[in-house]
Amino acid sequence: MGQGVAVDGGFIINTNPATGEVVSKVKCSTAEEIDKVIKAANEAQETWALKSPSERIAFLKKGLKEVDRQADKLVEWMILEMGKPIAEAKEELEGTVDKDEFLDILEKALEPQVYGSSTIIRDPFGVVAVLSPWNFPVDEILLLALPALASGNTVIIKPSEVVPETGACLVKALQTALPPNVIQVVQGDGVVGAHIVGSPDIHMVAMTGSSATGRKIIEMAAPQMKRVVLEMGGKDPMIVFDDADMDKAAHDAVKYSLSNTGQVCCSIERIYVAESIYDEFQTLTTKYAAEYKVGNGMDPANTVGPMVSQGQRNIVREQVKDAVAKGAKLLHQSEVPEHVEGSSFHPVTVLADATESMDVFTKETFGPVVAMAKFDGSEAEAIRLANKTEYGLGSSIYTKDLEKARRVARRIGAGQVGINCYAIEAMDIACPWVGHKHSGYGFHSGVDGFHQFSIPKSIVMVDPSA
Ligand code: NAD
């Protein structure tokens, strides 16, 4: 997903998507600077790896306290750099620093396991590159960096070129609590990312971003057999059966199509509604969508911000145009603030009668669009439609028949299935975050996810004197 961020004369021209104003110019790291950072990370890793997981986690907890102290600054940068509405920026920050339980599970996951004469310990890989996206500019860094660091790796963060100041501010806060060079930051776009991935002195690459970038990273990492964890895009289905709590389903359909201005990997993107309730569902979703107000994220009255860039806004605008030209019904389109040069607002849009011939039902729609279609209401058709995608991140099923919901959930090809809920909002902290198909290659969080950042080693000991 190219962001259309201007890099000029070796600087990222960092622009506010609500106002078009340049908020800062951030120097891109040169190849020489990156190589120096990689060397320092390898040197620091030797001593960091000697500490126990508990010692490392104590450092990380201290680091998160410092992040908390920088919360106001981080919230402001998020709004200025990528336009997140202030309430959502604060929510992201609160979730980010409240990681004690996450770190406790992580600590347990790293404990040695003893089986008779054999002890399984976990070795770090070495230096892990964390390449992050712009849509959750703080949390998406930490979800990969914390397990990498706790496992004894040192890390190099490359924030998305859209949010360089947020990334730098976060890393600086963590650095105050950690030994030198255990965490470092480099800046730049995909060119810088590719240089890091290609370095033989980087031992693992953990990226969250688009499936297109993920594919490039796999290709680049393959000749060196480098470990990769990739969290990528989605086209998440929501199934609404005729016995669903319709008000709740319509409310959630709108809320989770629009949150973060629709720029979420696991946004609800395809809503399939049983035909017997389709008309009423359209009325309810339109009512809920009308409650949202588009505007600058700095103003708490605005619940949908600008899209991240004009380029991304134009892609979504074209998807809506294509859908309407092919017969989709435009149920609602909100007002947007008056256009100023460089701003990138897109109206809250509700579409009915979407079909698979429309981009809005097949490609990732990273914008504030609610898109629905009717289906015959059967389990078989629900499963067929939900799985008709190359992606497999989240999904949701709304019905009062919990047995039916479980049957359908087992057959949906996705890492997370919410039954009468939006999975990520209600899921236990112990769950891994997983993408099936093109949505993920490796994964993070939960014991399964934490284990991806280290490699097991069996030490088998026989005492010759025994
Ligand atoms: P992106 O693919 O454009 O960029 C992701 C990161 O990779 C950035 O830091 C970028 O600079 C870097 N990069 C780009 N090209 C590279 C290359 N050739 N080599 C190395 N690094 C390169 O993604 P984005 O637009 O920043 O983020 C939005 C995407 O992220 C969406 O597709 C969204 O679904 C996905 N996402 C997924 C999850 C998840 O958990 N599955 C979470 C958040 C976002």
TrEMBL record:
- Ranges of residues in domain Aldehyde dehydrogenase: 13-458
MF terms per GO, please? Answer: oxidoreductase activity, acting on the aldehyde or oxo group of donors, NAD or NADP as acceptor
Q: Which InterPro entries match?
A: Ald_DH/histidinol_DH, Ald_DH_C, Ald_DH_CS_GLU, Ald_DH_N, Aldehyde_DH_dom
Quote the PROSITE patterns the UniProt record gives: ALDEHYDE_DEHYDR_GLU
Which keywords describe this protein according to UniProt? Oxidoreductase
Cite the Pfam families for this sequence: Aldedh (PF00171)
What residues form the membrane-spanning segments?
A: none
Q: Does the keyword Protein biosynthesis apply?
A: no
Q: Where is the active site?
A: E231
> Which family does the record claim for this protein?
Belongs to the aldehyde dehydrogenase family.
- Protein name in the entry: Aldehyde dehydrogenase domain-containing protein
